[in-house]
Amino acid sequence: MSVVSKVETFILTVPRTTPYLGPLGAGERVNARGYLVRRGNGTLYPTVDRSVLVRVTTADGAVGWGETYGICAPRATCEIINDLLAPELVGRDPQDVETIWDDLYGLMRVRGCGSGFHTDALAALDIALWDLRARAAGQPLWALLGTRQRDSIAGYVSGLPAATVAEKVAMARTFAAQGHDAFKVHAVVSHDGIAEEMAALRAALGEQVQLMVDLHWKFDHAQALALANELLPSRLTFIEAPLKPEDVAGLIALGADSPIPVAAGEEWPTDYVARLRLDGGTLAYVQPEMGHTGITQFLRIARLAARHGVQVAPHATIGGGIFMAASLHASAVIDGLWRHEWQHSIFSRSVEMLDTDMAYAHDGYRLPTGPGLGAVPNARFWDHTEAVA
Question: Is 90 exceeded by the pLDDT of residue 141?
Answer without folding.
Answer: yes
